[in-house]
């Protein structure tokens, strides 16, 4: 009995070491396999992970879908969600469109629209291709508003959209014939104004002449001074002028002797 006990303890110890080695090899194999699987997933599914998980910035909002159904209520953000939606002020250029004013004047309008998303849930769930819808809405709104105003109102007033932050006109093109007519009208208005100014000047000059004539009447000294001033002005001209001064008495006698 004393000789058999050491042998059994040695075999038990060898069995324990073998079992421990198998467990250690299995754990190492499992960890290696897990590490390889994680490496493969990180290598091949990086684009998928990036597409699914996106960071929502402070100016963005997100609509959360759970099993294909949108969760109603307040939009989420900022943080890490599934998809994001910008809530900044967006500008959208509208294509050039033909518009007819209230006084039957054809125009070509080119505008730009400024808007932002107030309700992200409604924007995602109720609107298909939101920017295109906003562009069409801006065009129809401009046509309706410009069609209700005359050309003068359109050129002098700033029209804005109803459903948007604001609509600014980038360009307003008039037909060539209308441009010529407006240019002719402007020239005619300028000429009429010039004629009015000239007529007012003539009236002022005539009043001044009448006042001067009443001043010279019966005042021979003033008349002689005006005569000398006229001679001085004639002397300053480049042409040679011969003047025969005639006394006023002689001229009065000559005028009175006429039939």
UniProtKB/TrEMBL annotation:
Belongs to the band 7/mec-2 family. Pfam families: Band_7. InterPro entries: Band-7_stomatin-like, Band_7, Band_7/SPFH_dom_sf, Stomatin_HflK_fam. The lineage of its organism: Eukaryota, Metazoa, Chordata, Craniata, Vertebrata. Residues 51-186 form the Band domain. This is Band 7 domain-containing protein. GO terms for cellular component: plasma membrane. It comes from Oreochromis aureus (Israeli tilapia).
